[in-house]
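Thread amino acids onto this structure.
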């Protein structure tokens, strides 16, 4: 799952060459985690094979290597025998790896279209640099993304700390 999500971090920091050097693209070593086991824990787990749904509820934590996804709810939709079709994380969604974090109220990944939609207080933080918006759409097939609604970026110059004197 995280191998699929790695494009997320490349798409929304679509900076020019020199800016990218100062900012850092982030989450560049996700592929190092791809072969590691995925572990999911929660207070409640429900599965319905007829509907093709697996739902993890309350204190959801999914880890794979150094990657950690937390949410109040994680829903996996699938077709028995065909595989996954959609992954939805809701309420206090946070994806963390080393010093980088992506958070939102909702994250949906549709496998057939390879689209990711994040909604509600979307924030990407890479060390002291931050990009935030109301909504973020990512087309992984085209490696494109757009952030919409109250977009705000804060990038610290190279060689500075949090921008304080």
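Threaded sequence (165 positions):
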């Amino acid at each position: 799952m995280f191998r699929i999500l790695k494009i997320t971090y490349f798409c929304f920091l679509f900076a020019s060459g020199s800016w990218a050097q100062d900012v850092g693209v982030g989450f560049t070593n996700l592929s190092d985690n791809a072969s590691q086991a995925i572990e999911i824990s929660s207070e409640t787990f429900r599965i319905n094979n007829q509907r093709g749904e697996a739902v993890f509820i309350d204190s959801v934590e999914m880890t794979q290597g150094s990657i950690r996804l937390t949410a109040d709810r994680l829903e996996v939709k699938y077709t028995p025998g065909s595989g996954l079709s959609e992954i939805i994380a809701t309420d206090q969604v946070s994806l963390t790896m080393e010093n980088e974090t992506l958070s939102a109220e909702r994250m949906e990944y549709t496998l057939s279209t390879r689209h990711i939609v994040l909604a509600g207080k979307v924030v990407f933080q890479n060390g002291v640099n931050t990009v935030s918006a109301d909504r973020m759409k990512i087309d992984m097939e085209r490696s494109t993304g757009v952030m919409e609604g109250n977009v705000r970026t804060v990038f610290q110059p190279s060689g500075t700390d949090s921008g304080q004197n």
